[in-house]
């Protein structure tokens, strides 16, 4: 009887341990001290929407060959003449990189999360929008690949919106433009991003 009780107790302990292991993988977070994701907010499930610092975003953009500029030559989020990426969504950063890889075009960002833009849920301030400088390469790709929805706006296959607003593109990234959260090794503490992405 004692032998059977001990075996049953061991089985219960093993089931409990298995349940803990099974739930341990539901949160995607950066490895401690990872330079690309330090301070990013961990999110549950595969729909990762981490908030990045300006330094994290610019490091990622720089590695992808994407430039940025501001009329004030600054990055203060509370100054409308600056271009800041503080609190930008990771999916927005990935969306810009997806577009860069799909088009092969040079991309210069002129607007990020700084104050001075229109408010709203899917706003610059909330990390969903960026502005690009106009270029014939980007314009030809966007207008030739995405669906025109009127009012100088085009919608990508993944649902992101591209608005030709005067002297720049105003882009809303609801998602990363065709990449998969599971492919973003950096989000789980790894390095590198998927190659050969299409769309945006």
Protein architecture, described:
- This protein is α+β, with helices and mostly antiparallel strands and 200 residues long.
- It contains 4 helices and 11 strands; from the N terminus they run H-E-E-E-H-E-E-H-E-E-H-E-E-E-E.
- It has helices at 2-24, 54-63, 90-103, 136-145; strands at residues 27-28, 43-44, 51-52, 67-68, 88-89, 108-111, 129-133, 147-150, 153-155, 161-165, 168-172.
- The strands form 3 sheets. The protein has a 7-stranded mixed beta sheet, with helices on one face.
- A hairpin with a 5-residue loop joins strand 9 (153-155) and strand 10 (161-165).
- The radius of gyration is 21 Å and the shape is globular.
Tag the structure with descriptive keywords.
200 residues; alpha+beta; seven-stranded mixed β-sheet; two-stranded antiparallel sheet; 4 helices; disordered N terminus; disordered C terminus
% residues in beta strands: 15-25%
Order of helices and strands: HEEEHEEHEEHEEEE
Instruction: Calculate Rg over CA atoms.
Output: 21 Å
Choose one word for the global shape.
globular
Question: Helix/strand/pairing class, anyone?
Answer: alpha+beta
Low-confidence stretches: 1-47, 181-198
What do the pLDDT scores average to? 75
Amino-to-carboxy terminus distance: 65 Å
The number of strands is 11
For the largest beta-sheet, the strand count, sense and barrel status come to: 7 strands, mixed
């Amino acid at each position: 009887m004692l032998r059977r009780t001990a075996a049953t107790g061991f089985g219960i302990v093993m089931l409990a341990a298995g349940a803990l292991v099974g739930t341990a993988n539901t949160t995607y977070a950066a490895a401690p001290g990872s330079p690309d994701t330090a301070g990013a907010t961990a999110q549950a499930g595969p729909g990762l929407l981490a908030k990045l610092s300006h330094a994290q975003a610019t490091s990622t953009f720089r590695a992808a060959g994407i430039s940025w500029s501001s009329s004030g030559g600054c990055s203060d989020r509370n100054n409308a003449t600056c271009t800041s990426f503080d609190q930008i969504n990771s999916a927005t950063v990935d969306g810009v990189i997806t577009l860069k890889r799909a088009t092969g075009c040079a991309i210069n960002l002129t607007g990020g999360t700084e104050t001075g833009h229109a408010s709203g849920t899917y706003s610059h301030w909330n990390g969903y929008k960026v502005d690009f400088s106009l270029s014939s390469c980007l314009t030809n790709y966007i207008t030739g690949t995405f669906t025109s929805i009127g009012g100088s706006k085009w919608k990508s296959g993944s649902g992101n919106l591209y608005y030709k607003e005067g002297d720049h593109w105003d882009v809303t990234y609801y998602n990363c433009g065709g990449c998969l959260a599971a492919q973003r090794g950096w989000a789980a503490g790894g390095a590198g991003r998927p190659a050969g992405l299409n769309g945006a």
